[in-house]
From TrEMBL:
GO terms for biological process: regulation of apoptotic process; regulation of canonical NF-kappaB signal transduction; signal transduction. It is found in: Cytoplasm. This is TNF receptor-associated factor. Residues 231-258 form a coiled coil. The keyword Zinc applies. One of its GO terms (cellular component) is cytoplasm. Residues 108-163 form the TRAF-type domain. Residues 297-444 form the MATH domain. It comes from the Eukaryota. It comes from Didymodactylos carnosus. Residues 21-60 form the RING-type domain. A zinc finger (TRAF-type) spans 108-163.
Amino acid sequence: MTTKFGFPFDSDSTVNVRYICRSCNNLLNKPKQVSCGHRYCSDCLEELTKNKPENNICPISGCGQLLNLDDIFYDRAIENEMKNIDIVCYNKVNGCSWRGKFSQYQEHLNICEYIAFICDSCGITFTDKTMFVQHQQTCLKAIISCPLWKFGCDAKILRETLQEHIDASTVDHLQMIADQLTSLIDAQNNFRYQQQQQQQQDPVLSLPFNQQGQQKNLTSATLTMTQNASILALQNDLLKQKQLIEQLHNENKSLSLKLKQRDDLLSQTRVDLKLSQADFLDLRKEFELSKTFIHDNGIYLWKIERINQKLNDAVNGKQIYINSPVFYSSINGYKLCTKLYLNGDQSVRNTHLSLYITVCRNKYDDLLEWPFKYPITFCLYDQSLKREHILNTLTPDLQSDSFKQPVLESNKSGGIPKFCPLFKVFSKDYGYAKNDTMYIKTFIDFKSYPQTIWPEWAKLQMSGFSEYAEHQRLADFLSKSQQ
């Protein structure tokens, strides 16, 4: 895949804003820097400056500086920096799992099997090139020439209106064909006239009478034979033209019939394909959801990688929080999402790690009890030998909109701003971010465990026990503590 402007990329890519073209919002392609310091793709900048260069102004909000062509230079330094940035293929939405360095991205795009082909005529997207090519030959929204363009019809029409054009233009088409035939007849008459002129100017007419008669008879016979041959040739040409017109007419009828049959087949195939794609997406969604359904106990373990990069993004304000994948309290239960502020939220920025829960809208919400009232315990795992896991329990405020039945896609998040001091989270004495990875477990307490049980629960988190075994252990612990 070649691209004239910038390189598109998936939002999961680790990309600093300085590597993005301020015109096309894609990764810089042959970057150039202007006098105000902003960068553009070479082709994007050419588009910006090709009309009235003296009036071109940097379009970045709040900038407004004039783009002086003399101050523009090729930014090879930024091009070298970009070689090592991590890129996720923008075809990820189509199923591509490629992730790599920008220096390899162009080569990948040239062979990516998940690239989307978009029909310019109807906008339908294809991931299979063969189907795309076949579609272009039959697309009903494509603009085509009239089959009688050789006879003078210069109409450009939508393929789906071809038959309507033929029906509505029958008189015009016949007139064009008649004009062609008239031209042929005029050419034949002109040929005869020229033959007659040649006969009148023939030198044999100046000979003596006796010789003239002999020569005239010979010349007359020769001329007659030549004329007859020429007329016969013209008649053959005229017959061929009539046959060609008839053939074109029949082919047009046959083409219209085949086109209709193909359109019907294509429409049915498109419907079947959409149904198949819908079925596949439903199955894949159910499969993905099934991986988050941990029986009916409301527990979700979130593994977060590249912590240092995400912390840097939070500190710089590029992305101040990250969301976990959505998870469910049960197959037909509450739909939730954990939100993490690695550098703290608002008043606790740069001092604490903040954890929140977001209640999301689900198709089974009308069957559930509202507001959401169950305590939620967050556990940040200590991966060191100390095993000093950090636990905090969030008790929902039943008056807060955060825990009411969602009307939009999700409610405003609610949680614990001061979950843990940052100096402890990133201290080398602990393993909360060991190997650039963090683990956070969200536990929905449907059983209303007493607070005394959580230290015991924390001990079980690194035991390798199944969740059923954990519940049994906790039940045994409660039973003994109440004796």
